[in-house]
Write a structure and sequence with these properties.
The chain has about 1000 residues and is α/β, with parallel strands linked by helices. Helices cover about 55% and strands about 10% of the residues. The chain is built from 43 helices and 21 strands. It is elongated, with a radius of gyration of 35 Å. The strands form five sheets. Strands 1, 2, 3, 4, 8, 9, 11 and 12 form an eight-stranded mixed beta sheet that branches.
Length: about 1000
Amino acid sequence: MGGRLALVVGSECAALGELGFTGELATGLYGSLTEAGGWRSATEDDGPVLNPTAAQLVTAVDAAFAAAGERQATLLLAFIGHGVATNAEDFYLLGHDSPAAPNSHNAFHLTQEIRERLDQSAVDGLVVLVDACETGQGVIGAARRWTDLLAQSAGRMEMLVAAGDGPAFSGCFTRTMLMTFAVGLPLRGENLLPGDLVDPIAGECVHQQPQYLSFTSGSVSGAHGADLGLWLVPNTARHRDAVSGRSAAGFVDQLTRGLLVTPDVREHLDAIVDAGSNRLRVVIGPTGAGKSTLLAMLIRPSLVEGLAVTPEYITAAVFLTAASSIEAVAAELAAQLSARLPGFAEAAKAVHAHRARDEFDIFDLTVRHPLARLSTAGRRVTLVLDGLNQPQEGTRRLLIAAIADLTRRHDLRHVRVIIGIRDGTGVEDDPALAHMYRIEVGEPAADDIATVVGSARGSGAPADPADWVRWIQSLLAQTPTDVNGSHVASGGWLLARMLLEVASSITDGAVAAGIGLDRIVALRVDAAQRGMYPETAGATGTFLSILVAAGVGPVLPIELLDAALTARGFDLHIARIRDMTVALGALVTRSRPGTSRESLGVTHGALLPGLRAECAQLGVDVEDAHRAIVTAIKQSPDDDRAADYARGSAVRHCLAYRDSASALHFLELLQTARAADNRDLWAAWVPAFVETLGPDHPATLTTRSREAYHRGESGDLVGAIAAFELLLADRLRVLGPDHPKTLGTRLNLASYRARCGDYVGARAEYKRLFADQRRLLGPDAPDTLRTRNDLASNRADLGDLPGAIADFEQLRLDRIRVLGPDHPQTLRTRNSLAYWRGQNGDFTGARTEFEQLLADCLRIYGPDHAATLAARNSLAAFRARSGDLAGAATEFTHLLADRLRVLGPDHPDTLTTRATLADYRADNGHLPGAIAELEQLLADRLRVLGPDHPDTFATRNDLAARQAQNGDLPKAISDLEVLLVAELRALGPTHAATIRTQKTLAHWRAHLVK
């Protein structure tokens, strides 16, 4: 359920005279909260409650608490009007009929009434805003009488009131709040919190002093609150930022909160900006040195006084995590660029209708090609990709290739890329990034960190500050081992943030003993547990283990975290999860806090060793957390957040507890209709299978097989053959020559050799394979029969049509005997037999077979089955070959309509039917229309099949030929020359498509000479 509910009250007490502004301000505040902040009415009525009686006021508050408690929603109570303090901690909100000297029967006693409702309602955080006189006693009463109830459940509360013990003037509190909502605060985060408004109100309302109170993590404070989820409205001053409104905005908030801009930090920022002429800049340094914070400051330059860039300097930014995939990164960049870069959205649409001549993967389609179309727009584009060392190895390879493309291609000379890399990971040594300009970032000075931490200790300052400096220096030099086995430093500004939260718990004795980062993490967890409700505290280890399993950064949707906790036996719900999150402070990072799209994760990789140790100390196995997340994914409803997370992480979680079957299952679920996407998907995960299961594990070999297959289906036949050759050598070594998987790899290798035009080599392999299958599987095994089918097709490819027809006739009989007359393989054999009979001139026999085959498919499958549609396609094509062009065109037109309806516009069969119809249109003399159809078909095949698919090549060939026929010989020849280079690269010189293009090119060159 959850959500954000608001009750706004404007009330003027008749006994105290008219104020005149409460209705206007209450209406304005309600409008801002609901329209900008996404709050919904906490009562059945949409709008503020105006001039209620005391009884009506109590009823409205009751309804608001009941609704928030039932939904476990965040509740905001705002009151504008008359208020009176009668005694210490006794502060009343007055209804229209309340007397000037109120009591609990005729007015709303703020402290007591809220306390009673807190005792009975499970709200997901409470925000109280009061614009009235004498509100100071309400704050004092809240601090003493609400916090014990909040502490019992580790609840969260923010309270902001207009004045102390004196008057509030003319609604200045609310007017200033609304003005601040409108213009924003440049030095604050993505959203405005109640505590952010103290200074603006105090500065504008000089005759009154606003009072602020925050309760989080089991303690009350007048300092700025720690729960970023209790926000009021988005900060309009942040709308120009690259990540505004995106999931990374919360992470940037955390990076820039309490920012200390030291001379070294400023020097690093200037170095990055001054190196802007370099197309690729790399910010590199050890863990915790502040690389991400530097990049966050470039996204929000208003936080750094005098920094000579605007928020438009960074056009788009992505903070990479272990869950990042190439698809997710491309989608995020495209979303930000569409919103921030004029013309990008239109360019992206145009790309889908434009035929590219070279590589065209998902990153090209959504990012590179649209950016290339804007190269003459006169505006520089700067992209940030932080944490390039974070993603899985396979994904990282794809990202590095994309970055190299962005920063090397001439048509992208207006693009600049800034990346962040952890030193020592080896990513910085990748040859593809050799052209980078390096900005080295070192650790902050220990005395700078000690100064920041010392200010947090206040009166508890160390007896000898030099001891603290030496201790912090030793922490900076530590190298605990991270989850990947590499060494990470423990310090930097990450260390400073951690020390700030536990400074009061660190004794001089602990400093002298030289406690390390793991112990600091333990202190932070202990402090959080002390402020939690016992039931919640008991779930701390499981909560942390799930976040550790999810990884670094705000990656895990909160609803999946909730489901994973339930799978581990803790039914906490979202409100208590947020309580725990706030209690754990700097250990946990959040995106979109307080909303239904909130995500969580561990703040930094350097914390993982300490958190793993805490999980072990609390008796929790992180492996069980991986299982729980997988269970949550499997049980999650079909929504985009769960699917996005599964796409990037489900396989990793399965591999963490070596469930290779589930890992392969998730990969199969993630496949799309586009072969190039599937190629990249399997390629991205091969390294993880190798690392986790070993290179010889059956699942690893299966992953390599799927990658090779989709490489071939995406058009890279040469690459597929090379991959299958390597795989065959390994399967022979690991499984032996007679294993079914080894035989299957041999079949794939022979098939792709045949598709690449090596019919002789393929036939030799088919014969050897057939002999082995007969020996091992028997003559009637399905795989043996399939190889006989391929052998017959190969015989036809080599020109022996009578021999191929004889082979197919015998195979049809055997398949009828073994599989039955209605088996799909039997029907496919009949289709092949009919086709080759027609090719051999037996039109009568072919037509009879095709018609009978269609009748059988209709009987067996019905009219909409793919096999029935394929049979109709075969019959229509035969009609065309036998001279009935008009009948064939009519049938193909009907077939296209049915394939669009049944299979959809992107199915390969639908695309093939469109190609056939375009050819018929051209053959009937309608060349301009045919060219237009082929241009659109090419755009769709590029998008669906990829640039190197044989069907895509065929469409490019057809289009060039039709353009030549239409009189545009120079363009046709130019396009054919480019096509031939691509086919030689992807298919090789012996492939039928390559030979066809060579012949077509020679033909039109001869015409050009004439």
